[in-house]
Amino acid sequence: YNKVEDVNVTFEDQQKINKFARNTNRMTELKNEILEKRKTLQNLQDASDDLMLFDDNSLFIPYQIGDVFINHSQDETQEMLESAKETLEQEVQDLEKQVSAIQQVLSDLKVQLYAKFGNNINLEADES
To answer: What molecular function terms (GO) are annotated for this protein (predicted)?
Structure first.
């Protein structure tokens, strides 16, 4: 049985709890974005690998730009795939940095909130 202590929640405490919730939501969004970009990266890598199987450089490969497909040589298409991969890899790194920064904020808030509320507050994510 858990003894629930009567702890006064101040305005400042409520602000910290709200900040914790906002940052937790933001981190979830960022992690989903990272997963999407990694899927796209894998698709680009697969396309790049498939392209290397062609040994006829006179073939023109349709490459989608926006809503339009434009034909490019095999070499041009390979370069475009590499460029797109580099851009995505950089975006993933930037998102991972944001996640790390948020994890630090959450960690600091956890320390403060658990110090005050102990077992009366649950800041652990439901892994469901």
So the answer is: unfolded protein binding
- What does DSSP assign to residue 122? -
The first and second tokens of residue 11, run together, are: 């305005």
Strand segments (E) across the chain: 60-65, 68-73
Q: Which residues contact 29 (CB under 8 A, 6 or more apart)?
A: none
Nearest in space to 118 (alpha carbons), one of 13, 12, 11: 13
Q: How far apart are the C-alpha atoms of 16 and 112, rounded to whole Å?
A: 9
Predicted structure pTM score: 0.80
> pLDDT for 79-103, tens place per residue?
999 999 999 999 999 999 999 999 9
The contacts of residue 91 (CB under 8 Å, 6+ apart) are 37
Structure tokens at 126: 């439901």
Number of C-beta neighbours around residue 78 at 10 A: 18
In tens, the pLDDT along 61-83 reads 888 888 888 888 888 889 999 99
- What's the rounded Cα separation, in Å, for the pair 103 and 91? 18
